[in-house]
Amino acid sequence: MKYFSCAQCNRQIFFMNSTCTHCGINLGYVVEEREMGSFHKHTSQLWKSINPKFKNKLYKPCFNYLHHHVCNWMIPAESSDIYCDSCKLTSIIPNLNNPDHTIYWSRLEHAKRRFLYMMQQLNIMPRPKKNDQDQFGLRFNFLMPDPDLSVLTGHAQGTITLNASEADVVYRETTRIKMGENYRTLLGHFRHESGHYYFDLIQQLRPDLIDAFRVTFGDERQDYAAALKRHYHEGPPIDWQKKFISSYASAHPWEDWAETWAHYLHMMDTLETAYYAGLSVQSKRADLPSMTIEENPIGAKNIETVLQNWLIITFNLNALNRSMGLDDAYPFTLSDKVLDKLRFIHHKLLEISFQK
Length: 356
Description:
- The protein is an alpha+beta fold.
- The chain is built from 9 helices and 13 strands.
């Protein structure tokens, strides 16, 4: 993610901020400008931007910003919408009579906005699903399980359902250990499940790419339910790391795609942050490579440089984490087969239009 600064005091601000921690001015993300704005309150409902690029333009905070403080996105004053482009995608939220549910909802919305930021950067921002028959829109259902309702996180026909309990750190960590996973985050859920959504769009909008997909990921026409049953009963192949980014990716080509898609988004977001931070690696050893990120990785023409930078930065991130006594920040091994899959996603994204 790019770095933002306050238009009033020029101090660094973050994508999740609603006020500047230095000068106290109101902040909000302006989707049309792809920028965090700094605002003086014109009225309780209308805020005036002081950013030079869109100075004195009036905006209104999203309803969920004003009334629940689970959002920090802005809407042009002339718009009839009361919800921002992120909140319009959310169809169902947990029952807010439970105070914990508001916390979970807030965490889910924050992860969703971070996911959507990257979709906007890639020029594949989803639009809200109009109805059940709409094959191209997207919506999110955040559901809390109860004794009469078991909630499985997943995607079906443009609806992504997330078990809101995943926003509870203890629940998520317990589930991660129980499932034998080495990585499980809210943002990772959004990125993985969106992979299924975008694959459905590819099938509908670019069926000519499916043969190339099958060469790279395998034939998705195999029985999905049977494949998952086999995976959970027998486990992954012994040599799964030679071909897949995770053991779960070996279950079925759909899951291989979704897992690799999620990791592509991890890579793009992290490297874009490193690019805007001006991070570089100047190795003190001849056998370790150095790194300088010369261009934003998003839309980069040379995917080989992007992949090389990713290998260098994750190696060093893991080394730093180990120095702190922490688990690896990126506990994955990228085989040649996985690198080919990441290349496939990168090259195809540059030529696909998801607009419908």
